[in-house]
Protein: DUF4336 domain-containing protein
Organism: Eremomyces bilateralis CBS 781.70
Amino acid sequence: MSSKPNPSDPSETMVIRKLNDNIVTCSVPFLRFGHIKFGGRGTIVKMQSGALAVFSPTALTPEVKEMVDSMGEVKYITALDIEHHIFLGPWNRAYPQAKVLCPEGLPGKRAKQKNDDVPFSVVFRAVDKESITVDPEFDAEFEFEFVHSHANKEIVFNWKPGKTLIEADLLFNLPATEQFSKTGQSPTSGILTKLFTTLGHTSGAAKGQQRIVWHAMSAGDRPGFAKSMAKINAWDFDRIIPCHGDVIETDGKGIFQKIMAWHLQGKKV
């Protein structure tokens, strides 16, 4: 995501929402390529251990900092893929004790961009992804899969106690209604936004998003992608928290199966 939210003051436009006693989302307006209303979202989970796990962090505004500090100790901060990393530096400086997780490719990308020097504790790699662990506390509550065959090198998490799938670009749920709700803008206005919304929604047959996943996001390694989807499909989840578009509060498993049907079936139909 861009380091310049739209509008520029995230305190004015961020929607901080408590989904339940253990999950808080921070939803912000974001324009992809400066025109397409994708929206962005960070997620904070208060684990049963009491530790906080932060995924795809958005801007660390004073309001977010106050809320997070009232919830507990931040012990984990995760960049869900190589695109969702812009705010790792501020979060790492505020919570230097936290382990920072990321996919392979991101440390090198940040070095080339001369971003803040964030120390990564766990780097998910394709070569040994089946043996990756974070630590006993984290591993007890989260299932995770490194979808290395995804174009953006996606790490997908399932918080088992809350049956909640947390992802960045694996699937979208446009339009980004909540994320643009404080901007005074329609989340569907603009020709490019209208076009991409037809490809990034989950309603009906959702053939547009099926095709995007098949022809773009998984095209480099469809067998590898299908293997990852089968693993995720075996998890027990109901809610999906995407970075782009609205939270899927229930029936997330069914929507996931619909979007990934071609991969789960082993062929395009």
User: Anything to note?
Assistant: Confidence is low (pLDDT under 50) at residues 1-5.
